[in-house]
Design goal:
Layout lengths: L7 E2 L3 H12 L4 E4 L9 E3 L1 H16 L7 E5 L6 E5 L17 E4 L4 H6 L9 H9 L1
Antiparallel strand pairs: 1-4, 2-3, 2-6, 4-5, 5-6
Helix pairs in contact: 1-2
Length: about 130
């Protein structure tokens, strides 16, 4: 998927449940963790992909950090989904966009991911600040 294509945020758990039902009816899906390259890519049929999305949703709901973000391209006919982990999203004053925790897409991402270098993990603001004050 092109990073320039707009995504729609799902603001209620009911909309996420509806998305899970649509994922279950389609497939195959390619699922991967951005920044981890080709090693993280796996494919799943609609049933397994819906179970994966439901499990990530339950994991987000159980966390104390607040709501996670689930974005989808074309909610009525999903082809690309980004799931953000609330624990890895930083603060509201962040100057960078966090990397998605997981991406799910119907188009095979192998070629696109092969061209991307793995993301370098950088320390967050508090870690950099603590280092400066020590």
């Amino acid at each position: 998927m092109s990073e320039s294509r707009p995504l729609t945020g799902l603001l209620t758990w009911e909309r996420v449940d509806a998305l899970i039902a649509m994922v279950r009816a389609t497939g195959p899906w390619y699922i991967h963790a951005p920044g981890e390259g080709l090693a993280s890519v796996f494919s799943a049929d609609g049933e397994a992909a819906a179970d994966f999305l439901a499990a990530r949703t339950e994991e987000i709901k159980s966390r104390r950090q607040g709501a996670g973000w689930i974005y989808v391209h074309t909610p009525d006919a999903p082809t690309w989904i980004k799931i953000y982990d609330p624990a890895k999203c930083g603060g509201s004053c962040s100057t960078t966009t966090p990397a998605a925790w997981w991406e799910m897409e119907v188009n095979d991402p192998w070629e696109r991911l092969a061209e991307q270098a793995p993301c370098e993990r950088k320390p967050g603001f508090l870690a950099r600040w603590r280092k400066k004050t020590q």
